[in-house]
Write a structure and sequence with these properties.
heterotrimer; A mainly alpha; B mainly alpha; C mainly alpha; A: mainly alpha; 16 helices; about 70% helix; globular; B: mainly alpha; Four Helix Bundle (Hemerythrin (Met), subunit A)
């Protein structure tokens, strides 16, 4: 360390000062490491699944192992990576900085939430070795109540992780309400905070229902209470209602923070005020609220009444409106901006491209008459990977690159970053685009075996997974390299205007030496006013 | 510590600029947490509503297996404990440490009585084999009777767990009251646990008639 | 780093004793009333009255025990939003369960899992569906 100045990374020292830290920046970093490990684990299972699908029939996994692999891939990626990814790691670090605050409202709860995450992850890991579940991440009854694999421990892990997510959301919500600096009205908040607020709303309002659902599933297996068991008079479709009441809004827990990251990066790299600030802000909240009314579109062919399916389909189309507003506003922000094609911005472009494809196919799937044919095919798999990987993961990487200099005070190698971006973007499309075609041809998801005519596209898809993995490994390489040998980062490497760029890189433990008074909107670039004429 | 009154001054945490801001954060945080509690229990109530709609006759029969006398007794215990909880907050606001402590103690004892009655009820159910389907051996007309008792144990069990957690919180409050940490200037934990206690009470206000008084 | 506690009066409100005692008494009376009414068979009114009493009790609990009568509107909205979303959950789920046995326009008989799969008649020629489809 050449700098003599103390910052949050080097003072206080010692492992205990990290384990018991109440500093939101350190907790955010610990989350980042934990989430990266989970992502690697989930990715490992993804590669296994893709490799097994190289040819029809058995390659190296038994059908049981294959089922367990895709279950673990899904459960780990959803509960351990996507849901906590941006809120718990990046937002934990950035949110108080953007507010000019010293910490989140409840620092001890923040640490608790991290340890709940660790405990939940540990239970999931235990489950992996104690006869991994083979139900798929959705745990549909009655299969999940009758299979002999370790459903209980995996469900328990997800239950604990749910509480970790609730506490994070609660904390951020209260922080945004009570700790805004002088002068920062709701409409002067950076848009990232709006999206985190909308996310927190969902986390708080939907996750408890997941909690009770999983609890009921555990009790069902232990004591047969019968609510979901048709042989006792219960209703298995009711489980799907319970499950999707959380799990559909959870999709927006994953994508809303991603949209927030994009809303931060685009104005910074276009040197231009965001177009339609209020529309983006309100569309975040609209997505969060509408997201509660559409869960039945996962259940069109589950035996749900046609009346309910009709309503759910109608509202599903409505969700595309706020999403569309956002995309139009981002593109309008770029128009006539002085764009710098740096790596965070490149990932934003990837996000826009992939999210649009994912979004449009989502509308296709929301149409009942089409969904009846496409349900549970690879079309669905491609759709949600375009939204979740192409949307959330791209935005997560974009945000990571954007705030990396602030987090560690080091710059990464930009050229390596651009190469990795190319590999990830190409690899992703090779991996998933052809799955749309497989889906429309009728290849069902989650099947171990497939018809020989699907093999060519499956091989292409598997090769894509290797390219994507290579890009991610390259990214890991140059990020670690930057920690060891990177150039020191200036205070504001990208020329951002939000408050976190007024802190040192890396920030001191107290974040700021003085209290900042906010006098205007978050993205008021001087050039923007000129170009308006 | 002020030796004359035995009151410990409260210090505002470093990331808040005033005690009012700190209180506002605590209040909002508690209310949001209670919202999650409402939804957590809410899932069970939705399950109840659906099953009751499917099997109305079975629910009427099942309620006759429950003792409304014991249920009413528990309702009285819980409502009274909510009142004594309010009184303990009020005593702290008036700087009456002794009274605050004793009101907390009464609240705790009433909660213990609630759990005692609950234990008697559970024992009766075990005796008659009125249990979830795994162990059900009771007698009844309706075929789906085990469904009700699965629900009954899930709902009252989860509520009971909340009562036990509340009792733990009350012990914590009693210790802190003894230490003189609550006074007219600072009684946030008392008020927040009070809010929690009222929501637990609220859940029981719904549970009691819905389980015991079906007709 | 800790600032000395300032003696700023809190925005706290002490709930007047008459309200708390009044609420206690009315809650107890209502609970007993509910039990008494449930002993008589009033048909559909049993459940109506029961829910009426529950709602009054819940309102009293929130207004005077939780202090919402003197609370900021925003906090109340926050808390009640939990019930709003619960209502959404319940009503949409009911919209499925209630209409699941809606009438099949072709067969003029209820849908339902039990009716969907029928063993073929011994002759094995055709289901009724073809008769109606013309």
């Amino acid at each position: 360390m050449t700098t003599a100045k103390p910052n949050y990374l080097n003072s206080p020292k010692g492992i205990l000062s990290w384990i018991f830290t109440l500093d939101h920046k350190r907790i955010g970093l610990m989350y980042l490491v934990a989430i990266a490990i989970s992502f690697a684990l989930g990715g490992f299972f993804a590669l296994l699944v893709r490799l097994e699908l190289l040819n029809p029939g058995k390659l190296f996994l038994t059908s049981q192992q294959y089922n367990q692999s895709f279950t673990l891939h899904g459960a780990i990626m959803i509960f351990l990576f996507l849901i906590p990814s941006i809120p718990a790691s990046l937002a934990n670090f950035v949110l108080p900085l953007q507010l000019g605050a010293k910490d989140v409202a409840f620092p001890r709860l923040n640490l608790w939430s991290f340890y709940l995450y660790v405990i939940g992850a540990a239970i999931c890991l235990y489950s992996m070795f104690a006869g991994a579940a083979d139900t798929g991440w959705t745990f549909y009854t009655p299969y999940s109540t009758t299979t002999t694999t370790s459903v209980i421990s995996l469900v328990l892990g997800a239950f604990v992780l749910g509480f970790s997510s609730i506490f994070t959301g609660l904390n951020f919500m209260v922080t945004i309400h009570t700790l805004r600096p002088p002068g920062m009205s709701w409409f002067r908040m950076p848009l990232f905070l709006w999206s985190i607020y909308a996310t927190a709303l969902i986390q708080v309002l939907a996750t408890p229902v997941l909690g009770i659902t999983l609890l009921l599933l555990i009790v069902e297996r232990v004591a047969k209470i019968g609510i979901f068991d048709p042989t006792l008079g219960g209703d298995p479709v009711l489980f799907q209602h319970f499950f999707w009441f959380y799990s559909h809004p959870a999709v927006y827990i994953m994508i809303l923070p991603a949209m927030g990251v994009i809303s931060e990066i685009i104005p910074t790299f276009c040197r231009k005020n965001i177009f339609g600030y209020k529309y983006i802000a309100f569309s975040s909240v609209a997505i969060a609220l509408l997201g509660f009314l559409v869960w039945g579109h996962h259940m069109y062919i589950s035996g749900q009444s046609q009346f309910a399916a009709l309503i759910f389909s109608l509202i599903t189309f409505l969700v595309s409106i706020p999403s569309g507003i956002k995309v139009f506003n981002w593109i309008a922000t770029m128009y006539k901006g002085s764009i710098q094609l740096k790596s965070p911005f490149l990932y934003c472009l990837a996000f826009l491209f992939l999210f649009c494809i994912g979004g449009f196919t989502g509308v296709v799937l929301g149409t009942i008459s089409l969904d009846v044919h496409l349900q549970d095919t690879y079309f669905v798999v491609a759709h949600f990977h375009y939204v979740m990987v192409g949307g959330t993961l791209m935005a997560f990487i974009a945000g990571l690159h954007y705030w990396w200099p602030k987090m560690f005070g080091k710059m990464y190698n930009e050229r390596a970053a651009v190469i990795a971006w190319g590999l990830i973007f190409v690899g992703f499309n090779v991996l998933f685009f052809f799955q749309y075609i497989l889906g429309t041809k009728g290849m069902p998801r989650r099947y171990y075996n497939y018809l020989p005519e699907f093999q060519a596209l499956n091989i292409v898809s598997t090769v894509g997974s290797w390219i994507l993995a290579a890009g991610l490994f390259l990214m890991l390489g140059y990020l670690i390299h930057s920690l060891l040998k990177g150039k020191p980062a200036p205070q504001n490497p990208w020329g951002g205007l939000t408050l976190e760029w007024k802190a040192d890189s890396p920030p001191i433990t107290e974040n700021f030496e003085e209290i900042h008074i906010v006098t205007g909107g978050p993205y008021e670039y001087p050039a923007a006013t000129k170009s308006a004429h | 510590m002020d030796s004359a009154t035995g009151i410990k001054q409260h210090h505002v945490a470093h990331h808040f600029s005033s005690s009012a801001q700190e209180f506002e954060a605590a209040k909002l945080g508690t209310l949001v947490f209670l919202v999650t509690e409402v939804l957590f229990f809410g899932g069970l109530f939705v399950g109840y509503a659906i099953l009751r709609m499917m099997y109305p006759a079975m629910f009427v029969e099942a309620a006759s297996h429950l003792s409304w006398q014991l249920g009413l007794l528990n309702t009285i215990f819980l409502i009274t404990s909510a009142f004594t909880m309010i009184m303990s907050v009020r005593s702290a606001q008036l700087n009456k440490r002794q009274a605050c402590f004793y009101f907390l103690l009464i609240t705790f004892l009433l909660a213990a009585c609630f759990m005692g009655v609950k234990a008697i009820e559970y024992a009766q159910k075990f005796e008659h084999g009125l249990l979830p389907a795994m162990w059900f051996s009771g007698e009844g007309v309706a075929e789906t009777l085990p469904l009700f008792f699965g629900l009954y144990f899930a709902m009252t069990g989860l509520h009971g767990i909340h009562i036990i957690v509340g009792m733990g919180l009350l012990i914590w409050l009693m210790i802190r009251t003894r230490r003189g940490e609550f006074y007219s200037g600072y009684f946030t934990p008392l008020e927040m646990v009070g809010l929690y206690w009222h929501v637990v009470d609220l859940v029981w206000i719904f549970l009691f008639p819905l389980l015991y008084l079906i007709r | 780093m800790q600032t000395q506690h300032e003696e700023v009066p809190h925005p706290h409100f002490m709930i007047p004793l008459k309200y708390t005692v009044g609420t206690l008494i009315s809650l107890l009376v209502l609970a007993v009333t509910n039990v008494i009414i449930s002993q008589f068979d009033l048909g559909i009114y049993n459940i109506v009255i029961m829910f009426g009493i529950i709602l009054v009790m819940a309102t009293l609990d929130m207004l005077f025990f939780m202090g919402f009568r003197w609370e900021r509107g925003f906090h109340i909205m926050m808390f009640l939003s939990g019930f709003v979303f619960l209502f959404i959950f319940l009503s949409f789920t009911l919209s499925d369960i209630m209409y699941r046995n809606a009438t099949d326009p072709y067969k003029m008989q209820p849908y339902g899992i039990k009716n969907l799969v029928k063993p073929l008649p011994a002759g094995g020629e055709h289901s009724e569906r073809t008769e109606h489809s013309e």
